[in-house]
Design brief:
Blueprint (H helix, E strand, L loop, with lengths): L23 H6 L10 E7 L6 E3 L7 E3 L1 H13 L4 E6 L17 H12 L5 E5 L12 E3 L2 E3 H18 L3 E4 L6 H11 L6 E8 L6 H7 L19 H13 L3 E5 L5 H10 L4 E5 L1 H12 L5 H15 L3 E4 L2 H10 L3
Parallel strand pairs: 1-3, 1-4, 1-12, 4-5, 5-8, 8-9, 9-10, 10-11, 11-12
Antiparallel strand pairs: 2-3, 6-7
Helix pairs in contact: 2-3, 3-4, 4-5, 7-8
């Protein structure tokens, strides 16, 4: 029988990379990217009332919650060791200026207070935007059919101050108006909230992956779209400009959204900037995995952990994901 001899290449057979893949203990020992529950932020949708839980059809496992039930979810998030929660609000009523966004008794402000009473040490991040609160569904003041950038800044700043006064640790402007980070920083400082941090949605793309979120938050625009202020998916260099400007204006952390289709942007941002980077594993990414898992087409746990690891490997320090609680349980069940 003829003997097959492997070709001799540099380092082989002395150098065999498979040696360190042989067992789980070895793989764990040399693993380059590590994921922990504290890396994950859990988004919550809050509505008025008490004892209210409204399931979101497009996002299995996600529900709109009244402040008392949001506080209970926050307690569970804290027990799992999650990095924090991110709050989105659905108002009792909407108007052209999104006035409940900056009302002292707004639903997000109520939820912040309830969560801080229940779990004072849990990090609470609040979304700063007007789209859930305006009757037209856009992220700012609309004048003659166009979102007026500069007229919107004061309302965003008022929203951030109101949320900080309720007890938010971090405010997260997601509107993509030019200059909003600077306006928010100045307003927070004037109001005495110098320690409230800003997580800026710096590179937020006009993505088709937001569909399920818009059902959950009832935030779809009533006319047109958001491409005049959210970023063109074709652009990456522009994202670095957006991030640099937000840092100059006072952002403490920056975000890339969505995550999966923009891993290259996360990696570029990691190479260019030293600030903490968040990435949003958005609703469409979540719902696709849920749908495929329910159909039996993939292993949800393995896919989710692979996705989250890829986002972390690309350079994200913080991952916002609707899978946060499930992922935390899977991570805690590991023996490493």
């Amino acid at each position: 029988m003829e003997t097959v001899t492997a070709p001799v290449t540099a380092g082989f057979p002395t150098r065999r990379l498979r040696r360190l893949r042989r067992t789980e203990a070895l793989r764990r020992l040399v693993r380059e990217t590590r994921l922990a529950p504290s890396d994950l932020i859990y988004p919550l949708f809050v509505v008025h009332g008490q004892g209210v839980r409204q399931e979101v059809a497009a996002m299995p496992g996600v529900a709109r919650l009244s402040p008392d039930l949001a506080a209970a979810e926050a307690e569970e998030a804290f027990a799992l060791g999650l990095g924090g929660v991110l709050l989105f609000g659905l108002p009792a009523s909407k108007d052209p200026l999104g006035s409940e966004a900056y009302a002292d008794d707004g639903v997000v402000q109520q939820a912040v207070r309830a969560i801080k009473r229940a779990v004072p040490d849990l990090l609470v991040i609040t979304d700063v935007c007007l789209c859930e609160y305006t009757d037209h569904g856009h992220c700012g003041v609309v004048r003659d059919g166009v979102v007026d950038n500069d007229q919107t800044l004061d309302l965003l700043a008022r929203t951030a101050v109101s949320q900080a006064a309720a007890g938010a640790d971090v405010v997260a402007p997601s509107d993509m108006m030019d200059g909003r980070v600077g306006a928010i920083r100045a307003a927070l400082d004037r109001a005495g909230f110098t320690e409230t941090a800003i997580l800026a949605y710096s590179a937020k793309y006009a993505s088709a992956f937001y569909g399920p979120f818009r059902e959950a938050a009832d935030s779809a625009p009533r006319f047109g779209d958001r491409r005049s202020y959210q970023m063109d998916p074709a652009n990456a260099r522009e994202a670095l400009q957006e991030i640099a400007l937000d840092i100059q204006e006072g952002a403490d952390m920056i975000m890339v959204k969505p995550a999966l289709a923009y891993l290259d942007v996360i990696a570029r941002a990691r190479q260019a900037f030293g600030l903490p980077i968040a990435a949003y594993n958005v609703s469409g990414e979540y719902s696709m995995v849920k749908a495929a898992a329910r159909a039996g087409w993939l292993d949800e746990q393995r896919v989710v952990m692979e996705i989250l690891t890829a986002i972390k490997r690309a350079g994200a320090d913080i991952i916002i994901t609707y899978h946060a609680k499930e992922a935390a349980r899977w991570l805690l069940a590991r023996k490493d």
